[in-house]
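Pilot study result, target chain (181 residues):
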Amino acid sequence: MGYRSEVAGCFSVDKVRKEIPNRTDVNGDPKYEYDYDRAKFKKMIGFIKLSRFYEVWTVHNPETPDAFGWRDGAFILYGADWKWYPDYDDVKAWNELWESMQDIEGISGYFCRVGEQANDIEEMEFGDAPCTDYFSPYSSLDFDGDGFLGKRVTDDEEDKAEQASTNPQEESCGSSVAQSA
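Predicted structure:
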């Protein structure tokens, strides 16, 4: 089975904030939109498709076609249950791509791996505007003790004894009704 990790990575073309002419928000402040260089985005996707990463992922991982994709100037990788060992071919290919993308002007990157153990979180980023819009690491607790939950056997006995001492009439009424039936 092995140790599993949840991983996410993103390469994005740096976005430029542009004011939308004649548009304001409720406070009267100018509204903005974010635009990116579409030619650079197309070039980045072409570079990724020519990389060893793309070849390894499309050939060796056909059962996970939704493990990566691109939209709005960003290339996104995500996996919920992956073996992320440095000597695995797909991990090597991702690391090679990560290193080579850092040499391209106007590209930013973010990567996060969360392992099974507490505090096993690895984060890396480069560039002016790392793309963290789509994911963020968090801590959680996985409880596997359902068999321990519930009332103790002694709780029922204590409840009956307490009810008997506080409501002697109700108990005797219940007894007489049961006897007459």
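One observation from the pilot: The CA atoms of residues 108 and 129 lie 6 Å apart. A full batch analysis is planned for the follow-on phase.
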